Amino acid sequence: MAKISKAVVDSSIRSSVFSTLNIANIDGYQKINDRQYGVIVTDENGVERYARVGVIVAEEREDCTARELMAAEIADYQNKQAKKAGKAAERAEKAAKDKAKREAAAKKKEEGE
After folding, report:
1. Between 113 and 111, whose confidence is greater?
2. HEC states along the chain?
């Protein structure tokens, strides 16, 4: 049996995903190309912006299955978000300590005058 080309398979997968999302039937969304739909939205500043919704089909890999790849990407994202949250908490803690230190120094200076 002949193997179906990657281009045909990827195109079929994208079509299936777009069909599942029913994006072609949502007002304002227009097909840009085989891989993307686009829409014009207005941002918080009142400026019209162009946003694209695209489907990226991951390459087949010999070292892991599609499910393993997806799980690894989710875990990687979650780890990065946890690190960001940790750094933000450290910055907030440092800012609070610095503020307390400045306030104490200002109070001490007032008492000295």
Report:
1. 111
2. CCCCCHHHHHHHHHHHHHHHHCHHHCCCCEEEECCEEEEEEECCCCCEEEEEEECCCCCCCCCCCHHHHHHHHHHHHHHHHHHHHHHHHHHHHHHHHHHHHHHHHHHHHHHHC
pLDDT recorded at residue 106: 87
- Give Dmax over CA atoms of the chain in angstroms: 93
Looking at the fold, whether 2 and 51 belong to one and the same domain comes out as yes
Q: Which domain holds residue 2?
A: 1-57
The reply to whether 71 and 53 lie within a common domain is no
Per-residue pLDDT tens for 81-101? 999 999 999 999 999 999 999
The number of domains in the chain is 2
